[in-house]
Amino acid sequence: MTGPQPTTVTGWQPTTVTERALLTAVENDDDPAFLAALASGPLLLPVPAAATAGEPPAWPTGHHEGVTHVMAYTSPAAIAAGLPGQAVTYRVSVLTDLAVDWPDERWVLAVDAGLPIGVRLTADELAALAAAGVEAELPLREAVQRQDPDALMSALLRAELVLPLRPDGPTTRDLGDPEFPWWCLPDEQGRPAVPVFTSEARLRQALGDHDLVVVSSLQLTEHWPDASWQLSLNPETPLAAALPGEALLTLRDWLSELRDVLDDAAEQERSRRVSAAYADPSTVGVPVPRSAAEPTTDVDEGPDPDIPVRLQLVIPHRYLASYLDDGYDRAAGLVHAWHGPGRDTPVRLYRRLGLLGTGSPFEESDEWVAVLRWPPTDGTQQEWAQGQPRMESLVVPDDTELHCLHQDGRDEILARFDATARRWTPA
Fold first, then answer.
1. 122 and 184 share a domain?
2. The domain containing residue 112 runs over which residues?
């Protein structure tokens, strides 16, 4: 990247979100932020006055130091400042389109020449900067070129979508809200259509700076407001396409059926694993045979005498989702006294409790492990509070905390159990 370039224009001020981000990056000497802002905004290419309607637009070129430069600007105000006194029409592009269509590897892209945010990119620099966007758009670009509706649907399923909001509409950003400000516009045939874009850069290419919300394709299909409305994808850009509302509703129904099938399969698998594990408690969280050479202890101060007693039980990694996602309220393993903040790591717990060895779900290399932790009750066996582990199968007590114990000693609380609601509440 050559730039930012020496400023030759005075009195210029940024007028768009992209330009403000570019100027801030220049002032902070932050090249990564500068390039990210450049990739996210529109680029305006002047159109020669002699251009013939219907012909492919010519590249607006100039020559500097024997090198051909393609001129581009970030806003009409930037054109007016960079080309004062000239009546200039322009076409709007984005960095990915320029990289895909770049005509000559010897040419250089000059953006906002003469402005404080001016920059020059070689063909290689342009390709590198646009590479991620080009790869992300490749399935969509191929689907549009082939006019293949199935491939288009497939590409949309994998894409994050940007939805412009109706100007002066309600402030809600929730697609499920009846007041959500859908922006429905007539297409070329006068049919109602909702503009949807595959990136903020594409939205700005068509609409400039505009209020928006980012949604997934699943959210969009689930809340599509009207089967008679079309989806107008990336209008006014080279990746424009249209899908009827009925197709979105069909996709929604198919996804719903698929989700039900997957949920049923996942529930059956969870039930099978839990039944297998808890039918024989000796397979979960219980000491396993170790060789005589294997260390049986680690440096340990024992339970901290200055904190209230808490009981603890180690959870195999594969069961964590059953607790957090499904409200699972059973546990089996070695109940033991918590030693206190900063006194344990996964491997120290494993060694103290004898949880390592052939067939164990735990490994010395584990970077984290989940534990259940709760205060003792009147019926708690005294030896547990004295630090003597005891094998138990139990119902999770109310207000039990689910923690993640990290290799570096961090103790992160994940959730707290509400026995009445039979669910884990995120902490």
1. no
2. 17-133
> DSSP assignment, residue 116?
T
Strands 230-233, 241-243: pairing is: antiparallel
The C-alpha atoms of residue 84 and residue 426 are separated, in whole angstroms, by 58
Q: What is the DSSP string of 311-356?
A: EEEEE-GGGHHHHHHH---EEEEEEEE---TTS--HHHHHHHHT--
In a domain, 2, yes or no: no
Considering the domain boundaries, does residue 272 fall inside one?
Answer: no
Question: Cα separation of 142 and 122, whole Å?
Answer: 26
Mean pLDDT of 332-338: 86
- Prediction pTM value: 0.59
H-helix segments, 91-165? 95-101, 123-146, 149-157
Bridge partners of residue 371, in order along the sequence: 314, 403
What DSSP string runs through 173-228?
Answer: --TTSTT-----EE-TTS-EEEEEBSSHHHHHHHHSS--EEEEEHHHHHHH---TT
Q: Give, in degrees to the nearest 5, the angle at Cα 369 between 317 and 408.
A: 150
Judge whether 313 and 380 are in contact, CB under 8 Å: no
Cβ neighbours for 143, distance < 8 A, ≥ 6 positions apart = 151, 152, 154, 155, 241
Token code pair at residue 271: 């039930």
- Token pair 């339970």 is found at 303
412 & 319 share domain: yes
pLDDT digits (tens, 9 = 90+) for 111-151: 999 999 999 999 999 999 999 899 989 989 999 998 888 78
Q: Residue 84 maps to which CATH number?
A: 3.40.1350
292 within 8 A of 358, measured Cβ to Cβ: no
